[in-house]
Design a protein that fits this description.
Elements (H helix, E strand, L loop, with lengths): L4 H12 L8 H12 L5 E2 L37 E9 L4 E8 L12 E5 L8 H9 L2 E3 L6 E3 L9 E6 L8 E2 L10 H18 L7 E8 L1 H17 L7 E10 L3 H14 L5 H13 L3 H15 L31 H10 L1 H6 L16 H6 L3 E2 L3 H8 L4 E7 L7 H9 L5 E8 L8 E6 L3 E6 L6 H17 L13
Parallel strand pairs: 1-11, 4-7, 4-9, 9-10, 10-12, 12-15
Antiparallel strand pairs: 2-3, 3-7, 3-8, 5-6, 13-14, 14-15
Helix pairs in contact: 1-2, 1-8, 3-9, 4-5, 5-12, 6-13, 7-8
The structure holds 2-acetamido-2-deoxy-beta-D-glucopyranose (7 copies).
């Protein structure tokens, strides 16, 4: 069965390419992760791995990274924003691009934590997705020429750091061409650690803050691996110790064995695949598979699901040509936002304001660079052993999924974390204190692990359900999610 998967998924992907949506993350995840499993390019993660992070680079000045204002930014947005490049290997000329937004919170300012966010892919920009589409203070407004203030920005409770990782993603680059060919989980985790250490050297006032790491999609590998390196580094007594408190994992790959079939399961359980099709997938690809039979079934299945927007089965599909009247820049969901983010970040005046290096930046800004995924070598097939280790060291973990996301569906995450065998403390229940909207369900485990779904959300949870998500993070961080007894409203 294992050897069939690469062909099966590659074929399926050919059909996904025909999807009317321009979104690429889901395709990358399917194209990228699943074929590697069982093909000898996946292996367990070395829990004691600690790369050399010694760096002779000067920390650089945060003053030159201060953003005076972004084009089309509404007046009166108080929080300071910074962006620019931090070296991960100065000799190689390898730099990560970041966008940092200070918190709007003013009470107990010295206790406000740092949230570092990385999108997945591999090759998808955190600045483009995490910041300007999902939970940054400013989201790109319809038309792609201005930004609007977001009502559900995470900088209402944290200082948020968005990082384009690895090089080739967003505005991050390297002067060494081979850096674009040599990606794997170990090199990326090492670069992410070097980035964070060097960033904290540039922003020393935050060096002792509580740190939370978050991400989505393939960051289900990046984030636990970075966390493990931070933990190992702290244990080795390196300065400064990073005060890592928790992980926030959104629609993530955790265990490829579960995730690879979740895709079909989710479509079937949402009435998107006929029973016969699902039975055939099970029969020809899962139970008693033959190469030929499985490929034929996958082709047929791929044709049926091609028109769906896999990131969000309930969302409207963007058809730019049908949007005739420019809308007011308001902070609310509309379906062509991903296209508008790409338009906005492609504007020369926006790039100037963000301190993008024009001689290094890609000619055309793209949300997801498929070359990164293509060049990405060995992956780790499961990050569950890492999570288990982190949990036993008091690092909390929240895993949540939008229940309309088909790319990495909620049930596969739930089944994955059940493999951790932690005692369950609280069963499913509804939460979110609103009479009109059920926020989702959660499941609490021991040792600081929570699992939750966000009802009606897709892959980019904050894009459609930002308020619910903010509430979810609040109760998780307060340590009350598992025991919150707000009854479900259905
Ligand atoms: C990961 O893959 C390697 C090599 O294929 C295999 O030996 C190992 O058991 C797998 N680990 C998990 C957790 O699936
Ligand atoms: C795991 O990492 C440690 C520390 O970097 C290293 O000494 C050890 O050789 C690695 N083990 C394997 C099996 O790669
Ligand atoms: C501010 O910090 C103090 C001391 O840690 C705490 O008692 C208080 O509740 C905090 N106030 C707010 C509004 O978080
Ligand atoms: C799979 O099907 C083939 C042909 O129908 C049969 O010969 C074989 O024994 C089956 N294998 C299993 C594991 O059921
Ligand atoms: C985790 O935190 C608890 C309570 O704060 C403490 O008793 C325990 O020693 C900590 N464990 C580790 C491994 O740090
Ligand atoms: C979390 O705790 C803080 C301080 O006690 C409180 O102000 C806030 O409302 C809580 N958030 C949620 C979502 O429960
Ligand atoms: C949640 O409830 C369980 C079982 O009643 C209890 O053991 C645990 O301490 C509670 N956790 C919190 C954070 O209140």
């Amino acid at each position: 069965m294992k050897t069939l998967l690469p062909d099966l998924l590659l074929l399926l992907l050919l059909f996904l390419f025909l999807s009317p949506s321009s979104a690429t993350t889901g395709r990358l995840i399917l194209d990228f992760i699943l074929p590697k499993i069982g093909s000898g390019t996946a292996r367990p993660w070395n829990l004691s791995f600690l790369p050399d992070v010694s760096t002779s680079s000067k920390p650089g000045s945060k003053d030159s990274d201060l953003i005076s204002a972004l084009p089309g930014q509404p007046k009166g947005v108080v929080a300071r924003q910074y962006s620019g490049y931090v070296p991960v290997d100065e000799k190689a000329g390898r730099f990560f691009f970041y966008y940092f937004t200070e918190s709007k919170k003013t009470v107990n300012a010295s206790e406000i934590p740092i949230f570092m966010w990385i999108n997945g892919g591999p090759g998808c920009s955190s600045v483009g997705s995490g910041a300007f589409l999902e939970h940054g203070p400013l989201v790109v407004a319809p038309g792609g020429k201005a930004v609007a203030e977001s009502s559900h920005a995470w900088n209402q409770f944290a200082h948020v750091l968005y990082v384009d990782s690895p090089v080739g993603t967003g505005f991050s680059y390297s002067d060494t061409p081979s850096d674009y060919q040599n990606y794997n989980d170990a090199t990326v985790a090492a670069d992410n650690l070097r980035f964070l250490v060097n960033w904290l050297a540039r922003f020393p006032e935050y060096a002792a803050r509580k740190v939370y790491l978050g991400g989505e999609g393939y960051a289900g590998n990046y984030i636990p691996q970075l966390a493990q390196l931070i933990h190992n580094r702290n244990r080795a007594g390196k300065y400064p110790a990073i005060n890592l408190k928790g992980l926030i994992l959104q629609n993530v790959i955790l265990d490829a064995d579960e995730d690879r079939w979740g895709f079909f399961d989710h479509l079937w359980s949402h009435g998107m695949l006929s029973q016969r099709m699902y039975d055939n997938i099970e029969k020809y690809c899962i139970k008693n598979s033959t190469r030929k039979g499985c490929i034929a079934v996958a082709q047929r299945t791929g044709r049926v699901v091609a028109p769906l927007y896999m990131f969000d089965l309930t969302a409207k599909i963007c058809r730019l040509s049908e949007i005739t009247t420019p809308r007011l820049p308001v902070d609310e969901y509309y379906e062509c936002q991903e296209e508008d983010v790409a338009a906005y970040l492609g504007l020369p005046e926006v790039q100037r304001a963000l301190h993008v290096n024009p001689s290094k930046a890609p000619k055309k800004w793209i949300q997801c660079n498929s070359n990164v995924a293509k060049a990405y070598g060995e992956i780790t097939n499961s990050t569950l052993p890492i999570l288990k280790n982190l949990l036993s060291n008091n690092i909390s973990v929240l895993v949540y999924s939008g229940d309309a996301n088909s790319v990495i569906p909620p049930m596969s995450s739930r089944l994955s974390i059940r493999k951790l065998n932690l005692s369950k403390t609280v069963p499913w229940h509804g939460w979110y204190p609103s009479k009109i909207d059920l926020g989702g369900y959660s499941e609490g485990y021991s040792e600081g692990l929570n699992y939750a779904t966000v009802r009606g959300a897709g892959h980019f949870v904050a894009k459609t359900k930002g308020t619910q998500l903010q509430f979810l993070l609040g109760v998780h961080l307060n340590g009350t999610l598992a025991n919150s007894t707000i009854p479900a409203v259905v």
